[in-house]
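Task 17 of the worksheet. Students: predict the tertiary structure of the chain below and write it out as structure tokens. Keep your answer in the requested format; marks are given for formatting as well as content.
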Amino acid sequence: MAFFRSKTVNLLNLHYAIHGLALSGGGAFFAVYLLKSGISVPWVLATFAMILAGRFVVRPLVVPIAVRTGMRAIVIAGAVLTALAYPILAEVDGLGPALFALIAMAAVGDAFYWSGFHAYYAALGTHEHRGSEVGAREGLAALVGIVNPLVTGLILVTYGPRVAFGVTSAFLLLGTLPLLFTPDVVVPRQVEGAYRAALPGVKLFAADGWIGAGYLFVWEIALFVTLGESFVAFGGALALAALVGAVGGLVLGRLIDRGHGRKAVLYAIGALMVTILLRAAAPGHVALAVVANALGALVICLYMPTMMTAVYNQAKRSACTLRFHVATEGGWDAGGAAGCLIAALLAAAGVPLSVAMLLSLLGAGWSFVQLRRYYGEHPVVTEIAVDPLAQNAIVNLAEEA
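Model answer:
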């Protein structure tokens, strides 16, 4: 498998796996712990809307800082700031100062980390193996997440939130170590038309954020309630889902690289829509909820390589991958915040959570149209497209070392 020959991509995937290990633990319990701490469903969803809105506001600061520090430092700083959010999460006890401190820290950490990571991955990955690289990354993240949700649920019950979320924070810090051995990427001070060129990616990510509001945030709450608000049962359901999805992304990623992107879109979005319908029907039905959650892990491994191959390749062809991803992540924030806010208002009005989950179908349909268009225009990878600014920066840094 040629895509495993890149030491840099392997290190990035190792970082992502460790980061994913943390997020499959404490990160997966973020919403349900807020609910268990006494915050109502509408306010939990409003909390996510505020975090995403905060990310949108903070994100423009990423580029001027990265111009001075380089892209790798942004990723590491984002991971560290994200790690600092989890000890605060452990102190949340209903609406109060701890919750608003959590919103602020999570917004800043996420804004830096995800903008930096996606741009870094786009710049350092290989165009012709992009689908396989992303597929391997998502499959590895699913694989390391098989045991951790169940372990985290047990730790929460046995030792409490400070220990459970402290472990999550430690893993997030540990995940920065592989990045110390990857090359840096210099961010140019001025680039013409970088944000305008990112518009297709912004549209894709806005749709994905809208999907995530119902498909991820609302669903986690619905699953937790259906499982009797048990941390252990919730962790067990997540562990089963990770087992189901561990190899799915690698298979579809290779399909994309062989020139079958439009077929991959059909599989991924089709599976996504079916799972949305199952999840909307699942609240109150334990067996169906567990099945729908397990299918969701497979959908992520199908959907993520399909979408991120298109986005990363567009980013690498752009004049500046960081500016591209700052713009696209802003689109995700806008779509996700809008979806979470609407879901919060619906929940406050007494509308069943299933309705908010069904709203994700609108985003899935829009993603289908955009991805089919992209893969219709780029059916087969015929040459490596390299961002000359990023490539020169990497070469210069290597020579200096």
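Marker's comment: Confidence is low (pLDDT under 50) at residues 381-401. The chain has 19 helices and no strands.
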